[in-house]
Design brief:
By secondary structure, this protein is mostly helical. The protein contains 6 helices and no strands. The protein has a domain of 53 residues.
Length: 98
């Protein structure tokens, strides 16, 4: 399964691979060493079939644990500062990557 995830990540990251037509993608996948059934599911964009082949669960639940209301109010300010610092850091990093 990790090979499929890595392959999908590479396709998402590479603009040349994103633009491949069905037959071009099939040709590229033939070199991947993945099972033919997995290759076919990828080319045909059949996500449910791919999930089944990989044994992946389609039921995914994302939860966020909210803090209790009895926490002190003064902790909010340092948290805002951290958020601002994180935004500034990510902006500097994005600017440096260009």
């Amino acid at each position: 399964m990790s090979n499929v995830v890595v392959l999908l990540e590479n396709i998402g990251r590479n603009s040349r691979l994103k633009g491949l037509s069905g037959q071009q993608l099939a040709d590229a996948l033939s070199l991947s060493g993945l099972a033919p059934s997995v290759q076919a599911a990828l080319v045909e964009q059949r996500s449910k079939h791919l999930e089944k082949l990989l044994g992946a669960s389609s039921n995914v639940c994302c939860l966020v644990h909210a803090p209790q209301d009895n926490e002190p109010e003064q902790e909010d300010e340092p948290q805002k500062d951290k958020s601002a610092q994180l935004v500034q850091w990510s902006e500097r990093r994005a600017a440096g990557a260009r």
